[in-house]
Amino acid sequence: MIPVNRPLLISGEGKYLAEAIKTGWISSEGPFVKEFENKFAAYVGKKYGTAVSSGTAALEVAMGAIELKAGDEVIMPTFTIMSCAVAVVAYGGIPVFVDSEPDTWNMDVSQIEKKVTKRTKAIMVVHIYGHPCDMDAIIQIAKRKGLIVIEDTAEAIGAEYKGGYRTVPFKGKKCGTFGDISCFSFYPNKTITTGEGGMLLTNNKKFKERADRLRDLGFIQEKRYYHEEIARNYRMTNIQAALGVAQMKNIKKLIKIKRGYGKLYNKLLANIPGLQLPVEKPYAKNIYWMYGIVLDKSTGFNNETFAKKLALQGIGTRPFFYPLHHQPVWRKSEYRAVKERNKDSFPVADKIAKQGLYLPSGLGNTEEEIRYISATIRKLLKS
Ligand SMILES: Cc1ncc(COP(=O)(O)O)c(C=O)c1O
User: Fold this and answer.
1) How far is CA 341 from the centre of its chain?
2) Minimal CB count within 10 Å: which of 70, 86, 108, 240?
3) Distance from residue 185's CA to the centre of ligand 1 (Å)
4) What domains can you pick out in the chain, each with its CATH number?
């Protein structure tokens, strides 16, 4: 079976791991943690980094850093991972969902403003599958309404926004530079990986200090074991950070490979009736994090039936996100407010969630695999 992802560890990771072991620095106190924070923050273009144990933890710590309170609302796409909503409800907040754009699959910017109320505290932007959101429009709304912007950049490390419209070479601003806080994941299917891991980046000193404290059980420096707020242990270990420091050496190369795989799929899957491919808007440098496709109903397939066909040919896939507005957990009494607040319809997200899936497109997958997968899809859809 061709897996949907294989990580690519080509940066001397073993040497860095061995150093962590040899020196005995295996916990979060080790020196690679700071080094990774500094290198990653400098690469993206933010002042401060706070490494944590996962992307999910990064989002939750971000909600704590902005001091989200019970009843506060955070606007986010319905088509995203559960982590986004979990972070908000962890503080008693209410996620408010927005439908998707049919071509980029990102949150539909034109629907954000009407979701803003007196209780809205932040907009959580998610660059879905590596395609940047239209940040100018989002930042304008946030400024006008006095909202904080949280950027979930887990899937868009290396993606860029706005480069003077198709300038060659495209020179945009990196995703992750726009948010008051931006959050990242380093799970093995991400552009760089630490096995499990995540990071928050910010230019705001207060957010940085709060993030450092909230990843660390809420410890305060002045008085040990004295807690003024509830926080968990979301620290990243030196072993994880050793992987991160190693991977930073080749980050540009890894992004190039990712984009190359996306473009190869674009070429090999072009012009198949009923098959929608990822786009790259004029304002965007897409990194094609995971290569998604959406099947028109006229093909006779949905994502489940097509995934089964591909599995028979030895090809692993994943369905698109199950939209947040459909998550059964909101039926529980303690989360009923989420259900009550999100009674609108979300037709685009509903459609892509049924008809969309993503193909093997990890850094460790090969060109040969992509050629085989593309030829198989062409054959299946032709017949
Ligand atoms: C958009 C997005 N945000 C957050 C996360 C959560 O990251 P993690 O798996 O490291 O908790 C993911 C994970 O895939 C993601 O895709």
Assistant:
1) 24
2) 70
3) 6
4) 13-248 (3.40.640.10), 251-382 (3.90.1150.10)
